[in-house]
Amino acid sequence: MQFQLTDDFINQIEILIAKKDGNALRELLNEFHFADIAELLEELKSDEATYLIKLLETDLTSEALMELDEEVREKILDRMSPKEIANELEEMDTDDAADIIAELDENIQKEVIDKIKDEDHAADIVELLNYDEDTAGALMAKELVKVKETWTIAGCVREMRRQAKNVTRVHSIYVVDKEGKLKGRLSLKDLLTVSGKAHISDIYIPKVDYVTVNTDNEDVARIMQKYDLEAIPVVDENGVLVGRITIDDIVDFIKEEAEKDYQMAAGISQDVEADDSVLKLTRARLPWLMIGMMGGLGAASIISGFEAIFLTYPNLLLFVPLIQATAGNVGVQSSAIVVQGLANDTIKGNIIRRLLKESLLALINGLCIALVVLLISHFAFHTTYLESISICIALISVIILAALIGTFVPIILDKNGIDPAVATGPFITTSNDVFGILTYFLIAKLILGF
Amino acid sequence: MQFQLTDDFINQIEILIAKKDGNALRELLNEFHFADIAELLEELKSDEATYLIKLLETDLTSEALMELDEEVREKILDRMSPKEIANELEEMDTDDAADIIAELDENIQKEVIDKIKDEDHAADIVELLNYDEDTAGALMAKELVKVKETWTIAGCVREMRRQAKNVTRVHSIYVVDKEGKLKGRLSLKDLLTVSGKAHISDIYIPKVDYVTVNTDNEDVARIMQKYDLEAIPVVDENGVLVGRITIDDIVDFIKEEAEKDYQMAAGISQDVEADDSVLKLTRARLPWLMIGMMGGLGAASIISGFEAIFLTYPNLLLFVPLIQATAGNVGVQSSAIVVQGLANDTIKGNIIRRLLKESLLALINGLCIALVVLLISHFAFHTTYLESISICIALISVIILAALIGTFVPIILDKNGIDPAVATGPFITTSNDVFGILTYFLIAKLILGF
Lengths: 450, 450
Description:
Two copies of one chain form a homodimer.
Chain A: H1 7-18, H2 22-29, H3 34-43, H4 46-55, H5 58-67, H6 70-78, H7 82-91, H8 94-103, H9 106-115, H10 119-129, H11 136-139, E1 145-148, H12 153-164, E2 172-176, E3 182-187, H13 188-192, H14 200-203, E4 211-212, H15 217-226, E5 231-235, E6 241-246, H16 247-265, H17 278-304, H18 307-312, H19 315-318, H20 320-343, H21 351-380, H22 385-415, H23 426-448
Parallel strand pairs in A: 1-2, 4-5
Antiparallel strand pairs in A: 2-3, 5-6
Helix pairs in contact in A: 3-5, 4-6, 5-7, 7-9, 8-10, 15-16, 17-23, 20-22, 20-23, 21-22, 22-23
């Protein structure tokens, strides 16, 4: 059942576009799913894609536009007139339309909005543009089905038929009072199982989860996941129902957040894909490599500060990579667990207990590793008794230190309102490299007395 | 609106449980949302939690059970009789019930199933247990609303009222032929807007996305996301409609996959949370640390193999941490981008072009970093002209090597049916550490001629 985009098919489309054979293209593509059209558009050149957008039905192209990568969409919209863009927005849900408007240059935003024929639709879009990014207000759509608590079921079904035409998916019917304040909800299923003469007020469910326009996106996602909701109504400061958020927006949000965190942990500083340009990929990757480089040079300067090592204990230098790798790995493990716990809101209890637990954990891991290293260093690398002891004590200390840095840096960042995910990956690795090597030689100096 | 679980509240509940004050507990908790009950149960001792499960309404507790961490649930189910477990299963959707059965010891599975009163429900659960884990068959529920294409709308509404009682959420009404083969779908919204005398065959949408019982979970998630579906029907080999998968299951699946990948990248080998026991956390973390340790010891043996360094070029040793850190960071970046691309199915085009692109990218990053290192090593660390050149050429080579390893290992694993995510994090870091240091000294040897 799944559509597979082949090179042959793309070629065929490109030839038809070059011939400007609009009829053949319409015949071929108008029955496609918008997600497949979007996949096709991403493979075409911008002017070819723009040609198709203008050619095909707007109910299809408006949805396909929403599925595109922001950059691809930008190039297409650049080649469209305000009137043509407005036509696409006309077919979109208000939340999608507002997202598109926000992506446009400021000087044409107003022009596009003015060209939207449906005035209510335009007013709704303008309202959505006023909410802060990252809040429920910016995420919600104005499209929803609402009924008054005083109506009968029959009246309600009539009214719903009218409203439902503008709403792609009816999850719940929201019940409001005279002032538009949210009172409860009805499911479509409930409507099917009661008599037409009953009043809404007799059958609606007064308990309804909701968020306000100012609720943070992350909280919206958490609530919808926790309570398994497929849609959640949004109210303003006065409790008036102003919109709703559906699960598909949340699925996209969860996915994007997970990818952002993953890339951040891998030291990639902006959202990139494997197929992006070399320049964009360099911009995303070079900053963290530079920070890692500074750490490496810092480590070099630490080592050069312990001259005695080169003369008297060169064996210690062999274990620098071991110390560094272990410090890095422990730090990444600790920070990943904490960052994930913070994201899922499962980090509870007091900080001292967490400190003790993490230290205990590090001590156990450290002892296991140190024991192996003790034997191997002594027998395979012929380190002296004292050298082996120094290496092992340093290893355990470095593991504990790295675990504590990995645990506390994210918690402290989070307490100060900074995304703890920035503390993962290269950041933790680099600082642990430097601290680890410093600790190693300080402990060796203390024990060996150089 | 959100429920906040406080220590005071938990205390109050624990006191009531100790007093066995069932009435007060029922009064207090029966109006709660199941997700909040689950949060409470996770904070209680197993015997307290079990007491509550047995006490409260099964429509509430059966849903709460499904929200619990598997370990917490296991402890509670251990304290319940087959009959009591069967009572909970009676209230669950078939997919959830099958998941619970699969978690039970094999010797009581049959007993529990036998104790389920509703025979159809029990048969459906047994059917689901037969599908392979990780397939649509194991993910789907048997609950759905289906109608025959020959019926009238009025007849359809009557039949739906009957069926809808067992279905928590009606997303779509599936249309089947006489043999039960999937023909298309109707939305509840469509039913509201047509006359009762029309036939289903006149109004149903014959184009419907579906998967088969053997479709892989990841493909199901990809299809539902791509086409923004809230539910998808599942058919058997003959095209007969046998179940449906809803978006809430997919949300959970996406979240779990993202967390698994994230932990794998951080070198954590099994699913753990910050609040798990020290033993469990050690088991999850120690294996990767041991692999990192082997890498560190490997590096030590490489360094010890280049005796001339200690005697003639000790300066080179200062830059081992820099080489190692850079190799690790580049490898992690490259692998993260490829792993994410593979997961999203956006890695296309031929492998040679990707190789050239990744090399070019690495060359640019390498040149930038090498230039800075060239200056700093020469002026701050007083390396000789040839030493600086060696360090920089090694650095560029190591960056290219690390990028290629980071790019190709995941692609090769993926081609061989292995989850490419295992190649991220410590695995890439460790192998890059070792290859990086080896490359560094080989190049230095070549240039400096020791």
